[in-house]
């Protein structure tokens, strides 16, 4: 089910993806527990699907909850936690919370640098995004 939901998501079939991601998340909550890594992954996938539909407030609530649980369960420096942090920063940026997004992405970058190393693709990508967002912010202030 999760793979099919991901396929729908990759195809931009958001309504179908959302429906399946909800089922997967609820089933995993019941069978594995609310803080199981697979359940948290399902929550993040659903949040991403909501984000892709422009439903930023709903995505924010779900992603923030997934991030909180992931941080408690796996630790703030775990790669899955860092992915959640990155995703929440993108949601905040789309919501117009530019300073919050920049701050969270900076934290994510700092941790990725420590955990994954400076040459890891996620670290490099985060730095690139951080620099682009800073540049956008500077241009909007002028």
TrEMBL record:
Which Pfam family, giving just one, matches this sequence?
Answer: TPR_10
> Which PANTHER family would you find in this protein's record?
AAA+ ATPASE DOMAIN-CONTAINING PROTEIN-RELATED, ATP/GTP-BINDING PROTEIN-RELATED
The name under which this protein is listed is Kinesin light chain
Q: Which organism is the protein's source?
A: Parathielavia appendiculata
């Amino acid at each position: 089910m999760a793979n099919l939901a991901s396929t729908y998501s990759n195809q931009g079939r958001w309504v179908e993806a959302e429906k399946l991601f909800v089922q997967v998340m609820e089933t995993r909550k019941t069978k594995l527990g609310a803080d199981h890594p697979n359940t948290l992954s399902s929550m993040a996938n659903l949040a991403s699907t909501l984000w892709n539909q422009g439903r930023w407030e709903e995505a924010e609530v779900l992603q923030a909850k997934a991030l909180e649980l992931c941080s408690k369960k796996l630790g703030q420096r775990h790669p899955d936690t860092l992915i959640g942090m990155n995703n929440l920063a993108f949601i905040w940026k789309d919501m117009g919370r530019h300073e919050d997004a920049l701050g969270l992405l900076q934290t994510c970058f700092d941790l990725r640098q420590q955990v994954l190393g400076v040459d890891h693709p996620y670290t490099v990508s985060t730095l690139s995004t951080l620099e682009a967002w800073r540049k956008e912010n500077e241009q909007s202030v002028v």
